Amino acid sequence: MADYRVEAVRESSRRWTVRNARGAEVRVGAADDEGAQPSFTPVELLLAALGGCGGLVMDRVARTVVDDGLRITVESVSGPEDDGRVGTVRIAYEMELPEGAREAFERGVRLTHEKYCTVSRTVEHGARVEALLPDGTAGFAAGPEPGGA
Question: What Å distances lie between residue 119 and 1, 78, 81, CA to CA?
Answer without folding.
Answer: 19, 19, 24
